[in-house]
Amino acid sequence: MGKVVVGTAVICAATACAVAVLVVRHRMRKSGRWARAMAIVKEFEEKCGTPTGKLKQVADAMTVEMHAGLASEGGSKLKMLITFVDNLPTGNEEGLFYALDLGGTNFRVLRVQLGGKDGGLVNQEFAEVSIPPNLMVGTSEALFNYIAAELAKFVAQEGQDFQLPPGRQRELGFTFSFPVMQSSIASGNLIKWTKGFSIDDAVGQDIVAELTRAMERQGLDMHVSALVNDTVGTLAGGRHSNNDVIAAVILGTGTNAAYVERAQAIPKWHGLLPKSGEMVINMEWGNFRSSHLPLTEYDLALDAESLNPGEQIFEKIISGMYLGEIVRRVLCKLAEEASLFGDTVPPKLKVPFILRTPEMSAMHHDTSADLSVVGNKLKSILEISDTSLKVRKVVVELCNIVATRGARLAAAGILGIFEEVGKGHNQRWGESEVSDSHGWWIV
């Protein structure tokens, strides 16, 4: 009997020892995985670093590229497109006007009744329409037919609050937020698509003519009186409200900037100098690239797998279309190399662009004690359940790294414009400091 008891005790001790070894080994493995995860996050943070000195280098590089782009066509990664807009709104405009804004995965149609200097904006209505993904990579005719049909529906809903003078044709301002080489205020050929669009038969074509033909097919009696980039439109809107606005920046699905330049500072301008002495320049700054930009392996991989590799590098690290995707790619590496979400990589995490920037932003701004927003987003979007608070904090940190880098680089770009504008401010406005009396319009 004693031998049995002793034997049983030995077996129990051995079992307990084996279990203890397994527990220790599991803890060590888990500790090693966590250390690897922290190393990945730290390396990513360092490579995304934007110290003041680097930001100044980016700003200076932006100014250099601006000069090169103003000097000659193709002289810079920045297109520095002449917009033919040499006068901006004054606030005295009156009448009924329509606008179409095409610049991303949605487009907007708008009608406004302007009442002049004293009346201001009398009334406005708008509608937003999603563009089916197949139309973003289809044909020019299919895309513009869809847009014209939705525009016709919107015009048909025009009420008594919007008055069109007898005998006057409806006028449409067309905001087209892609690189265009304009030949007049109401015509321009598409240079290339960005922001996920890839419609080959539209490249090189006059997009105003494409829209006009589509409206005619819809029987819509409307005239496109102005073609502008969304950034130029934003600048015009800012000037309508504030005569001191001189520059505009778009930070949305894509990104761009436009500003008021001295006509004499544009060597590639060969026409008569405008009476105003000024010209709005559409920079197309999303295509800015510099050795000073803090690019990571995730950015390079995203670019290589994009529809336009090697292009729009600045846009791919600061704009809404890409920020969530960068976070997803880092999370994917953490899952693969550090088992952040368990022994297997969640299948949804491998789907490109499944994590959109609005969801990333919501997680970034989660202030709840248990980061419940982060937990819910991970579960609903990536089907990752039961995440610990420690893991959720890692996700928030990644969102913060990506968002901070984007914001600081955007600010550096604005500084570059500020430096260029400031060089001619004495001749242009007679002010001692541009920042004292002139403004930015940022969307």
Task: Please give a structural write-up.
The protein has 443 residues and is of the alpha/beta class. The protein is built from 14 helices and twelve strands. The strands form three sheets. Strands 1-11-10-9-12 form a five-stranded mixed β-sheet, sandwiched between helices. A five-stranded mixed β-sheet has the order 4-3-2-5-8. A two-stranded antiparallel ribbon has the order 6-7. Strand 6 and strand 7 (187-190) form a beta hairpin. Helix 2 crosses helix 12, helix 4 crosses helix 5 and helix 9 (323-338) packs across helix 10. The longest helix is centred in the N-terminal third of the chain and has 46 residues, at 2-47.
As laid out across the biggest beta sheet, the strand order is 1-11-10-9-12
**Helix-strand category:** alpha/beta
Shape: globular
Which band does the percent of strand residues land in?
15-25%
The largest pleated sheet is described as: 5 strands, mixed
Q: pLDDT under 50 segments (min length 5)?
A: 17-26, 426-438
Helix content: 40-55%
Span of the ends, CA to CA: 85 Å
The value of Rg in angstroms is: 28 Å
E-strand count: 12
- Please trace the helix and strand order, writing H or E for each element: HHEEEHEHEEEHEHEEEHHHHHHHHE
> In DSSP terms, counting alpha (H) and pi (I) runs of 4 or more, how many helices?
14
- Whole-number average pLDDT? 88
Protein name: Phosphotransferase
Keywords: ATP-binding, Glycolysis, Kinase, Membrane, Nucleotide-binding, Transferase, Transmembrane, Transmembrane helix
Transmembrane segments: 6-24
InterPro entries: ATPase_NBD, Hexokinase, Hexokinase_C, Hexokinase_N
